[in-house]
Amino acid sequence: MAAARPPGGRGTPGRRPGPGLRPRLTVLATVLVALVSALLLWLGWWLVGGVAQSSVPAFPEGGTVRVDGVEVPAEQVGQAVGAAARAEVLRAGLIAFPLVVVAAAVVSWVLVGRVLAPLHAVTATARRLSAESLDERIALRDARGEVAELAAVFDAMLDRLQAAFDAQRRFVANASHELRTPLAVLRTEVDVTLADPDADLDELRRMAEVVRDATRRADELVGALLLLARTQAVGHLDARPVDLAELAASSVAAVSGAAAARGLRMSVSAAPAPAAGDPVLLGRVAGNLLENAVRHNVPGGWVEVCTGPVAGGAELRVASGGDVIAPERVAELFEPFRRGPRDRTGDAGGAGLGLSIVRAVVLAHGGSVRGDAVPGGGLAVTVRIPHTPEDGH
């Protein structure tokens, strides 16, 4: 059984929509014209009577004068002329008044309709919009003033919505692809091993190692996705005093083993860098930058870590060697699942979310992040965090 539809249509449930803006503005304009016309009619009636009465010459007393077909004593001629003039003004006004009011109503209806036409275009476009039709725009050409500004703001909002939906679609597609890869490896290894009736212990160990690596990659990817989602959805930061130098030192210690295994030269200049923010999230910023610097480096390369105070906050800079990156492609590295040049990251692993998480965390703290291609190969990332956390959303 279908549920009863609440009164009110598309409006608020239980409330009936009132009259539209066009009839209300028309009634308001008509009432104002009627009031002004009535006031002018009264002023005309009063002024004409007084002028007519004062302009009549004096007649000898005892005589009579015919005014408008009526015999009037000479001493009352002025009053009679004034009364006749007022009666004439009143007759003409009673004919003109309704005509003026009707004309005002018609003109107001037409003009208000033309003024509100762009608003109807905005409403019609908003009703047609859906996740699949965000490319529609109002694009008013003839509107002026506040209506044109409203249409421009609405179009700008649609641009932002479309960009957000497109980014969400790309993110979901990329995340699905990244998660599908380790799952496919797991399924393939298990199927191949089970299909081999002569599989020995060595074969099972090899399969177990492959499965372990695939599950580790899937676990890292899921963890990175959860951290990115948490950072982008954070509404209130657990802001505390932090020192970026201490966070950088902890991250350097965490990657020192991997850096030594690849023969990387580490250079650390950790001056005190006090800031304010979430220690866990900012620690992940330093960790991601150092992990990327080691993972995407070249054997025997270099890594430089610098921290220090800047105006209004603190700065962390991590630079590393590597393959050449085109300067115009540096900004792409901060997008989810972007790993840079193939020859730079072909065997480096990772989910491609490190710099995306860095950017999200820094923006949530009201800071700034900048990437620069290093001449000769490599990448330098500079992060600035203010002393006082700001809303970066």
Describe this structure in words.
With 393 residues, the protein is an alpha+beta fold. It is 56% helix and 13% strand. It has a five-stranded mixed sheet, covered by helices on one side. Helix 3 (145-195) packs antiparallel against helix 4 and helix 5 packs parallel to helix 6 (279-295). The longest helix has 52 residues, at 77-128. The radius of gyration is 41 Å and the shape is elongated. Mean pLDDT is 78; it is low at 1-14 and 342-348.
Indicate the multimeric state: single chain
| Sheet with most strands: strand arrangement | 4-6-7-9-8
Ranges with pLDDT <50 over ≥5 residues?
1-14, 342-348
Rounded mean pLDDT is 78
Helix content: 55-70%
Task: Work out the number of β strands.
Answer: 9
CA-atom Rg in angstroms: 41 Å
Shape: elongated
Structural class: alpha+beta
Which percent band covers the strand fraction? 5-15%
The DSSP helix count reads 8
Write the H/E string, N to C: HEEHHHEHEEHEEHHEE
Tell me about the biggest sheet?
Answer: 5 strands, mixed
Distance, first to last CA? 45 Å
